[in-house]
Amino acid sequence: MDDVPYLMRGRKSVTTESSVLISSSKFLNDARIREWVVSQNLRKAGDDVPLTYGIPQLIQAMRELQDHARIEELFNQARKGWPELDRWLDERFLAHLTKEDLAGYAPDSVGGVFYSYLTRQNLQIDIIPTFEPKSAFEYFFLRGVQIHDFMHILGGVGFDYMSETIPAFMKFGNLFRWFEPELAGLLNIQNTFLVMPGITRTLLHYPGSFMAKWKLAEQGMRIGAASDPLFLPRYEDFLDLTPDEARAKFGVREVVQIDTARLSEVSETQVQDYEAALV
Asked: What's this model's pTM, rounded to 2 decimal places?
């Protein structure tokens, strides 16, 4: 035993009759998740394979791996004493906005800002096909996709690569404020797979940008933890409000306007003073 390195002591041998890789973790057992975690944590950014390329496969894996029955049970527990959540889950409201619906809003309104972004990037609103949710988890996921771009606007950032850190960490902070840990954790698993690799690969390959990205994460967490439940409102009914008016109405707090586009465009050697970069 003395010749075994201290940190390697205590391992138990586990036998199995399986002829393939098998673990007690359903995520480690899934080849799609293993590929996503390895490639997204260790890769560099490149136009040959966009960072978003594997997301549809990740989404499908999550829909198959998640314990829908347990999430349904936890949602039912959370409904008790929370009429707004109870009504939200019963109604399962889904928006059917199109880019053309936004064309008439003032440029400084939420609708106008959203329309400008979609027009500049030649995008449509629905980035994944709409489907009929069969469970609370599927509804929560689909509604989250629908309001994602509003989180960019209300969170005080643009729609570039670095800006994605803000709404992702808003979700962490907000769900762990409003739900008990098990449900908050289950609802953030996909979010974790999407956002955490960006922190790793930034440190590995773009260390000059690391502290800027970390500060964005802290800011997103701060907003989410200080705000009202961000998943409940029908933001589509209030597109005429300015972002500041919408933040006041929906209880979005601790927001600092950040020019994330500049962070996404500069090279790692140019982002050394992250405090200056985030003013």
From this structure: 0.89
